[in-house]
Design goal:
41% of the residues lie in helices and 10% in strands. The chain contains 19 helices and 22 strands. The strands form 10 sheets. The chain has a 3-stranded antiparallel beta sheet. A hairpin with a 2-residue loop joins strand 15 and strand 16. Helix 7 packs across helix 9, helix 13 packs antiparallel against helix 14 and helix 15 (391-403) runs parallel beside helix 17 (447-460). The longest helix is centred in the N-terminal third of the chain and has 28 residues, at 31-58.
Length: 585
């Protein structure tokens, strides 16, 4: 299966996130699981509505529910710090959880509630409020939610019962997008992390932001440009992304925080977790959504750098972007998105390896702690919480779609049971303050409805994806893969030239990653024995006996993605390996 231009997009997404798998052996539903999947689907449905109904009853139209006290918080902006009587007179509430729930309602098949929510937002939602908001969070949650819901409301299946929709969500999204633009007015083009929706960038606003904050805007703002015909939103996000890319180190690594005024890095240590995670995710998904080869080249270089400098077996530590040397040996719950991204890349073996380690930690504590110290094999002393994050469920969904291995259904069932056992309360679902005691915290984040419940539901019922191609944003909002949104690629990438690289007399040796080809044995289908999946970065040695005269005759190791070298004895191998994390002090 080839991963090139719009054709590879259609084929690969059809494989990864569609129930109609190309391999006939994997397209058959395991009948022993059919009834169990229906049962689990209904459990997840009840979870969603327990959280959603309590939000409507106790928090709507404010941002998020406080399930223990059955009250609300306006968490998206600084309004959340004000008491009810001190809120601006024109404030009606941003209804964040309602916006975040729109696509989930469609996926659960509740078009009536979807239409009711769209109608309320169309008549009541306004962004002309004196509120300082986080650009990144507002982009992925609100702008992404509105754009996605607009597309769902206008698709060919006519999801709105009364057909009364007149693009109101798109008008709201465009209004919000315009309010984002002053944040990009910096010497570097990198946006401020915070902006006031009514007055723009405030005096003495902080110039510090994260890599994700200025590198994870392209999907939502790019989609807004495609829908409105105004390129300014995509241009602003793309300019920021290109500037960020120019700031990478010679190792193709990035830091975690930077200054938008000077373009200088403030924190040089980073990994694949908080502050950086969605940056890597959006490089690849932007390539899928918009077809730009530029995004692929960025992601390819960044992915190989991550595999080379961050990976240690199934785990990913942090490292200094300047030297590649390890800095922090820790697991963070946000890293759990990475196996899902690797599924989209086609690196199933690496994805499965990391996912299983995350599951072991989940089983040990009952949920996934925010931070776990790998070098000490202990919880972080202060970050022992679990805020109902979706990343582990997300990767479980992707891996099941790619392999149809029923083991991932077992994992999904374990997640559902743990959430109901430890976090369900009368007023909704509460975050866990301490995973060692399961003490709860009074907060039900909007992403619990936007992502956690959504990915668990799709794991057990993927009918929404039949005959459709979507990519999901980092907040779980589906965006369709449309050929009209793709740029015309160079002629060398049309199907007639797919075998060109192999047809040359002196073809350059390449990996599945560099050719954008799925590994030949990527589908490790349940029930087919111990067949191993080949890593996407693997480049075999030039000779099958691994003999060599120079390093050029050695390939790239399939497990570590590190380049092999030729020994003095004339054999290819990993002759210079890194030490165990516990030995690095």
């Amino acid at each position: 299966m080839l991963l090139r231009n719009s054709a590879w997009t259609w084929m690969f997404l059809f494989l990864v996130i569609s129930p109609a798998i190309l391999n006939p052996c994997t397209s058959q539903v395991d009948h022993r699981w059919a009834a169990r999947k229906r049962q689990m689907r209904e459990k997840v449905r009840k979870m969603f509505y327990h959280a959603y109904d309590n939000y409507l009853a106790h928090a709507f139209p404010h941002d998020e529910l406080k399930p223990l006290t059955k009250s609300f918080t306006d968490s998206l902006s600084e309004l959340g710090n004000l008491k009810l009587e001190h809120l601006p007179q024109d404030y009606k509430g941003s209804a964040l959880t309602l916006v975040e729930s729109l696509s989930s309602l469609v996926i659960l098949g509740n078009n009536t509630e979807f239409e009711r929510a769209v109608l309320w937002l169309s008549e009541n939602l306004t962004f002309n409020v004196d509120a300082r908001i986080n650009l990144f969070e507002c982009n992925i949650r609100v702008l992404g939610g509105l754009v996605s819901a607009h597309i769902l409301a206008t698709d060919s299946t006519n999801r709105l019962v009364n057909s009364s929709y007149r693009n109101e969500l798109l008008f709201l999204a465009e209004d919000l997008g315009k309010r984002f633009l002053p944040a990009f007015n910096t010497p570097t083009g990198l946006p401020y992390a915070w902006i006031n929706l009514k007055y723009g960038v405030m005096v003495n606003e902080t110039t510090e932001t994260s890599t994700s904050g200025c590198g994870s805007l392209i999907l939502e703002m790019g989609a807004l440009s495609r829908l409105t015909g105004d390129p300014i939103y995509e241009y602003a996000a793309l300019r920021s992304l290109r500037k960020l890319w120019s700031m990478r180190s010679s190792l193709n690594l990035f830091g975690t925080t930077l200054d938008v005024a000077t373009g200088e890095w403030l924190e040089h240590s980073s990994g694949i977790g908080a502050g950086v995670d969605s940056f890597y995710e959006y490089l690849f998904k932007a390539h899928i959504l918009f077809g730009k080869e530029e995004f692929w080249r960025m992601f390819h270089s960044a992915y190989l750098a991550v595999q080379k400098y961050f990976r240690h077996g199934p785990w990913y530590h942090e490292a200094d972007m300047r030297t590649g040397k390890a800095t922090y040996w820790q697991l963070t719950s946000l890293q759990a998105f990475w196996p899902g991204l690797q599924v989209l890349v086609g690196d199933i073996a690496a994805a499965n390896s990391s996912h299983r380690e995350f599951f072991h930690v989940w089983e040990r504590f009952g949920v996934l702690p925010e931070r776990y110290l790998l070098d000490h094999q202990m919880l972080h002393p202060t970050e022992k919480y679990y805020p109902l994050r979706p990343e582990f469920a997300e990767s479980t969904f992707y891996l099941y779609q790619a392999t149809k291995d029923s083991w991932y259904l077992d994992v999904g069932e374990s997640i559902v049971n743990s959430l109901n056992l430890h976090t369900k309360v009368e007023g909704g679902y509460a975050s866990v303050r301490d995973v060692t005691t399961m003490q709860l915290e009074d907060h039900q984040h909007s992403f619990f409805l936007a992502e956690t419940c959504k990915y668990l539901y799709l794991l057990f019922d993927d009918s929404f994806l039949v005959n459709r191609n979507f990519i999901f944003t980092t907040e779980g909002h589906p965006l369709p893969v449309l050929s009209d949104w793709h740029e015309r690629l160079p002629e060398t990438y049309i199907p007639t030239n797919w075998t060109f690289a192999q047809g040359e007399k002196k073809a350059r040796r390449a990996s599945a990653m560099s050719l954008q080809v799925c590994p030949a044995r990527a589908l490790n289908t349940w029930g087919q024995g111990d067949q191993q999946a080949e890593s996407a970065c693997h480049i075999p040695d030039a000779r099958i006996d691994h003999r060599c005269l120079t390093d050029e005759e050695c390939g790239v190791d399939s497990t570590t993605c590190r380049r092999r070298s030729c020994s003095m004895a004339g054999y290819c191998g990993l002759w210079f390996t890194s030490s165990h994390p516990c030995e690095r002090k």
